[in-house]
Amino acid sequence: MAESSIVVSVEKVVKHLKDHKVKAAVKVKSEVLRIAENFLKDEGYVELLPTILSTVTDPLNHDVYEVTVDYNGLPYRLTQSMIFHKQLALLAFDKIFITSPNIRLETFDKSTSGRHLFEFVQIDLEAREATREDIMNLIERLFVEIFKGVRESCKEELEFLDVDPEIPKPPFKKVKYLDAVKEYGEKFEDKLSMDLDQPAWLIDIPILKREFYDKLSPNGETLLDMDLILPRGYGEVISGGEREYEYDSILRRMAIKGNDPENFEWYLKIVKEYGIPPSAGCGFGVERLTRYICGLDHVKYTRLFPKVPGELWV
Ligand code: ASN
Fold it and tell me: For residue 96, what are the CA distances in angstroms to 100, 120, 265, 281?
């Protein structure tokens, strides 16, 4: 089916730049970044600069348009997530994070989801020898800091947006994926999110519902992974988990998901010849968290130059 696209007019771009709602949300987002980056540094995470062009990137678990850059014959990809670079970076440091711009050329039907931009930023972190529990605990403490900090430093903006974001209360509830399916049916995310009044972890996602790199649990059916679901319909803001790190297991998981090892040649070579450590990590969508704090109906208000699926914007 042909997808309809929109060329955004210059008037609309300037109106967006001058919109007080956008200005307030962008200021809140700036504070979210400051607080998160300081918190992670205080926890011993070393900040890396983002990788934008890569020979290997996240295959993702949903369809997007492929994007390769022909650099005079050298085939580069645009980064969809830094998952493999995060694992490799642990050869240098024990804990790392990146404020990572990701390009995911989403299909145009995502334009009205309120949650998709085809260029967005996630704070992506990974820690050597960490467990899923360690990462969930870290994020719960981080989210408390972010909400406390923003309430303090963005009083004017929150007042303008007419919101009073509640500081989340850890520990967050854990919901098993298959229990959510039982309660709400296969397409449960929106319904689950609508029923929540606190963020909740969605855990134990079935093997075929996620990428090959999240670690299989000893039960052989679900993964040692997690999403964080925001309340009141705001939906998923984090995905992460423990990782596969052994060459044979990675190949087995690629075969199960139908991922062609040829597309991951650089990564696989390093894993096979040098090894990578066990780890866990996650990434949280900066625009999605800001949208939730600011009570907005679309992530586009959190960026001055939003890349909404299907739109041509400056
Ligand atoms: N950042 C995510 C993770 O750490 C991966 C992703 O963005 N798809 O698992």
Answer: 12, 20, 23, 9
